[in-house]
Amino acid sequence: MPFAQLIVGPPGSGKSTYCDGMHQFMGAIGRKCSVVNLDPANDHTSYPVALDVRDLVTLDEIMEAEELGPNGGVLYALEELEHNIEWLEEGLKKLG
Q1: Using an 8 Å Cβ cutoff, are 33 and 22 in contact?
Q2: By C-alpha distance, which of 37, 45, 4 is closest to 21?
Q3: The model's pTM
Q4: How many other β-carbons are positioned within 10 Å of the β-carbon of residue 21?
Q5: d(CA 25, CA 31)
Q6: 42 vs 31, 63, 67, 84, CA distance in Å?
Q7: Please, which contacts does 3-6 make with residues 24 or more away whose CB atoms are closer than 8 Å?
Q8: What pLDDT is recorded for position 12?
Q9: What's in the keyword line of the UniProt record (predicted)?
Q10: Averaged pLDDT score across all residues of the chain
Q11: pLDDT band at residue 59 using 50, 70 and 90 as cut-offs
Q12: Own/partner pairs for 54-61, CB < 8 Å, 24+ apart?
């Protein structure tokens, strides 16, 4: 049975560190683990990302095109994800 963890928090709170540790742990016990990145500002991960919102939209592109700051850019990116929710649904289905 598949399950998921949703990791949220402010910048610098350890979300990526947690995801890296969980990915390593799951691999060590022989479990499949797929990490989905929904943060358009997260441009560096030390673990493989199976589905990445940055394939749809990046924070830098939004900030430049829409003349927004980082906070407005993240809100805009979330709206883009909402308008393209089928992209996320299809990507999650492919993960199994």
Answers
A1: yes
A2: 45
A3: 0.83
A4: 12
A5: 9
A6: 25, 14, 19, 19
A7: none
A8: 87
A9: GTP-binding, Hydrolase, Nucleotide-binding
A10: 92
A11: very high
A12: 56/80, 56/81, 56/84, 56/87, 57/81
